[in-house]
Design brief:
By secondary structure, this protein is mainly alpha-helical. The chain folds into 2 domains: 3-310, no CATH class; 321-550, Phosphate transport system protein phou homolog 2, domain 2 (Methane Monooxygenase Hydroxylase, Chain G, domain 1, Up-down Bundle), CATH 1.20.58. It contains 21 helices and 2 strands. Helix 9 (191-203) packs antiparallel against helix 12, helix 14 (335-365) runs antiparallel to helix 15 and helix 14 (335-365) runs antiparallel to helix 17 (446-472). The protein is globular and about 70 Å long.
Length: 554
């Protein structure tokens, strides 16, 4: 096998590794993301719980970077302090280290099982949660398969005359190896994937233990760099956690690198084989960072906050500036260009509605006057954008429109009206419920609150489907959205039935919060109906909607 063919096989195996990691992460985010985020928010005030929660979330998401950005957004919103968020991210990095350990075992038997069960579940049901669970299983199967393919693809490299030269050079120059690993991890956008690659190569005898550990240290630095780079467009408070994590990881990695270069510790203590030594060194390093990082998290967070305060704030862009840029008057004479501009503007409305929809349940859980006012201000933004879009659509030259453009005009106008109505329900109804809950000091029963969270999570998921339908006009997505509307109706009925059962049992908190509970269910159901109706024009155009119901599948 020629060298180019070996590299092609290795590149394909690495690509499968990255894709499988992404499949698992996105599956978990779509199915359980909202619930996991709420659980994380509730544990960040206790350092030990924060470490545990961050680690668990990293294992679920297969990504410490996702946890870093998530916790950073919490810090930016004032939900948690930068120090508490930093502790959680250190725990997330430790969790990702345990993922590497788990995947270093011989799990080859899981490949056919995970692929078969995952594919069966995905194809056998239309329920979103089950389909995403199937997606996760398929991702796990492909992840394990990719590791085996990497090992098989790298086997011919043992006979290579060039590889020993490269390995010997890197072993003699640990600083270069460290930097190459950091850059490669940043390019991979996954420290887990890069470290698994190093372990797979070490298992074939291609990477010695000391070089592998040096590259693992570089990968830890690169992993911190990923979140820091991705957060560069976020607000300064939101960047404290990713930058603080990068600072701690950089200091720790450089100190560990110096220790390996100068002290040459006995690596045999870490395991009997080279792959085990590399994996265990990765875990030990992250455990040490957690232990050393907790006492210094506050100092690091405050230092980063001061440094960010010195940076010049970006020039604020007003809402009117954004609307003017999107709704270009010069495009009014060309309907296709004008409708593309309107689509961009409607995407902005969708993003604002999603933010409002996510934050309203957080306010139910922790009512706060300042954040309530901020949410109401978002509705004002939606109203202004709705008015601007409606006026712009009215000014498009209709004489030059074809039938498709005329239909798209009505579709965008109808969608914008529905989004504006969703914003009104959130602010004029649900935000009022939050105020009552705050004023009266009310709390839902654990069962009732869990039911509301599940209903809300389903509505948020349907909102994303609706936004995708609006942009892509994909028939399958539109069908899924309408079917999910029917399923949510069943969930709503079950939730109401459970609530009335608690009322009959005389549960005090159920009696106190009955009105709030039922009104919230009604509001969420109404929001979901408005969002589902965004799919109707797509289905009507394709003759798949009869009256108000889907036509029976032929």
């Amino acid at each position: 096998m020629t060298g180019s063919v070996v590299l092609i096989h290795l590149a394909g195996a690495v690509a499968l590794l990255l894709w499988a990691t992404r499949m698992v992460r996105t599956g978990v985010e779509r199915a359980y993301g909202d619930v996991l985020r709420r659980k994380l928010r509730g544990t960040l005030r206790n350092p030990l719980l924060a470490v545990a929660a961050g680690g668990a979330l990293a294992i679920a998401f297969q990504s410490a970077t996702a946890v870093s950005l998530l916790v950073g957004s919490f810090a930016g919103s004032g939900i948690v302090t930068g120090a508490a968020g930093l502790v959680a991210v250190l725990g997330a990095d430790l969790g990702s280290a345990f993922v590497v350990k788990l995947l270093s075992f011989d799990l080859s038997l899981l490949v056919p099982i995970a692929l078969f069960v995952g594919t069966t579940i995905f194809l056998a049901t239309e329920r979103r949660a089950w389909r995403q669970f199937g997606r996760i299983l398929v991702g796990v199967g492909l992840l394990i398969l990719s590791l085996r393919l990497i090992g098989e693809a790298s086997e011919p490299l043992r006979e290579s005359g060039i590889l020993p030269v490269v390995v010997n050079y890197l072993a003699a120059d640990p600083v270069t190896a460290f930097l190459i690993a950091a850059v490669a991890t940043w390019l991979f956008h996954s420290s887990v994937a890069f470290i698994l690659l190093i372990v797979a190569l070490a298992a074939r005898g291609l990477v010695p233990a000391e070089l592998g550990i040096v590259m693992v240290l570089g990968a830890n630095l690169g992993g911190g760099l990923i979140a820091a780079m991705l957060s560069r467009t976020m607000s300064p408070p939101s960047r404290v956690v990713p930058l603080g994590n990068l600072t701690i990881r950089a200091i720790g990695a450089l100190l560990a690198l110096a220790g390996i270069v100068w002290l040459h510790p006995p690596l045999e203590l870490l395991g009997a084989s080279v792959p085990l030594q590399i994996v265990h060194a990765h875990i030990v390093f992250n455990v040490a960072l957690v232990i050393a990082g907790i006492p210094f998290a506050g100092l690091v967070a405050r230092t980063i906050e001061r440094l960010l305060a010195y940076a010049a704030p970006p020039v604020p862009v007003t809402l009117e500036d954004k609307d003017t840029n999107a709704l270009d008057p010069e495009a009014l004479g060309t309907p296709s260009r004008a409708l593309a501009n309107v689509t961009r503007a409607v995407v902005g409305v969708c993003e604002t509605i999603e933010v409002m929809l996510k934050n309203i349940m957080e306010l139910y859980e922790e009512p706060d006057r300042a954040r309530m006012a901020a949410l109401a201000a978002l509705d004002d933004r939606v109203d202004r954008r709705h008015a601007a879009i409606k006026l712009y659509l009215a000014r498009i030259t209709t004489g030059q429109m074809n039938d498709d453009e005329a239909r798209r005009t009505q579709e965008l106008l109808g969608a914008c009206v529905k989004l504006e109505q969703v914003g009104d329900i959130i602010v004029r109804n649900m935000l009022v419920h939050v105020g009552k809950k705050l004023d009266r000091g009310l709390n839902f029963t654990p069962e009732g609150w869990r039911e509301l969270l599940n209903l809300h999570a389903a509505v948020v998921a349907n909102a994303r489907l609706a936004f995708n339908v609006l942009i892509s006009r994909d028939t399958e997505t539109a069908l899924q959205l309408v079917r999910e509307k029917d399923r949510l109706r069943d969930v709503e009925r079950a939730t109401s039935r459970s609530h009335f059962e608690r009322l009959r049992e005389g549960t005090p908190r159920s009696v106190e919060t009955s009105s709030l509970h039922l009104d919230t269910i009604r509001d969420l159901k109404q929001i979901n109906s408005l969002l589902a109706s965004i799919a109707y024009p797509v289905l009507e155009e394709r003759g798949m909607l009869g009256g108000t119901r889907l036509k029976a599948a032929e």
